[in-house]
Structures are given as C-alpha cells and as structure tokens.
Amino acid sequence: MSETEESSVKLDEMDLALLERVETDFDVSLEELAGELDLSKSAVHYRLNKLKDSGVIEGVTADLNPLSFDLEMVAITDVSVTHEQGYSETIGEQLATIDGVEQVYYTMGDTDFVVISRVQDRDQMNDLIDEMVAIEGINETSSKFVMQEIENGRKIVGNMSDRVVESIIG
Questions:
Q1: Most buried among 71, 78, 106, 117, by the most CB within 10 A?
Q2: Predicted structure pTM score
C-alpha cells in the first residue's frame, strides 16, 4: 500500500481510542477492550480487522526486551554517501540487511542516512561499522553511542497532538 493510500484511511475517534489502547498492549482481550470502549466484542473485532485490512495495523508482534539478550550497546550512526542515481534505495537496503541494524532512515541535511543499531559489545559494533563502510558508495560514518535509554517503545497514536488527531478525524 502506498503512503497516499495509507494516509487516506478514514478513522474516527473510536478507531483512535482503540488504536491507542492496543498500541500500549496488543495482548489485551476483546472483552476488556469492549468494556473499556463501551462497544460489543464483535464491534471491536470488526474494527481491528478493518484496521488490519487497511494497513493501519501492520502486524502483531511481540515486544522483546533487548537487554534479555545482552544487547546493551546502542549506536546512532550518521552515514554519508556518494550521490548517484538510485543510491538512496540501494544503499539503504544494504544497510538494513546488516546484522544488528534495527532501523535505517534516509535523511536530508548533513548526512544521508541515520542508522540505529544494537549489539552486545564493542567487537560486534566494530564488525557492524566495518560492514557499513564496506558498502560501495558509503564515504563516511560517524557514530554516537547511547549512554541510557530514556524511552524504548514506539507509540504513534499515543504521541499524537490534538491538531494531528483533528486532521485525521476532521
């Protein structure tokens, strides 16, 4: 589904309330959701399916604690590349396949990509950076290492301003 199609999905206040609740805890039961939102279980089920089918809910996943796997070292790496046709997609895809890379962002500004990665130790981080700079077209990397994670969890609906909510349900 394209970005245009995703942004054209019609949502109402109940959809947003449901999304905010399941974004916090997708393991909540239909009964509990129905009670909290004052809907029937079948209405909650229908809305969840509609949100999945329209691409608003992309999947159901388990939130794993990276510290359980000793993945304590987090780096934010700025990547500068040689600008050639198609570089953003090609290099971005290559960066995303490196073990330990969690997120890749194509950016505008001083750097071309921002890469978030997580490993267990310095040796693994050195290997990861070595893989990055080995990609043809990458000129330079600059990494910042996270000392403490303040918030670990992506919330979309829960972080929306009133203005954004109004533009969605307009």
A1: 117
A2: 0.77
